[in-house]
Amino acid sequence: MATSFAARRGFSTTRTQLGSPYHYAEGPRTNIPFNPMTKRFFWRYWAFMVTGFGSPFAIAVWQTYKTK
User: What is one GO cellular-component annotation here (predicted)?
Assistant: First the structure.
């Protein structure tokens, strides 16, 4: 029965509707939530990485030296 059910399905797709508010432009760098082509992207990227990676270590050092 499973093989006949799969054979009956019509695996087809419809053309994308470009007027839809849920369709976004396609191509390189269009599927990421930031623009890597700006002048300050390099500095913003590394500031984000240093902050995100360094925060746990800074918090651990602060907790170690905190008086009880």
Answer: mitochondrial inner membrane
Residue with tokens 């797709």: 13
Residue 10 lies in a domain: no
Q: Which two tokens stand for residue 11?
A: 């695996």
The C-alpha atoms of residue 34 and residue 48 are separated, in whole angstroms, by: 13
The count of structural domains within the chain is: 1
Q: Is 62 within the bounds of a domain?
A: yes
The pLDDT tens digits of the residues spanning 35-61 come to: 899 999 999 999 999 999 999 999 999
Report the predicted TM-score, pTM, of the whole model to 2 decimal places.
Answer: 0.52
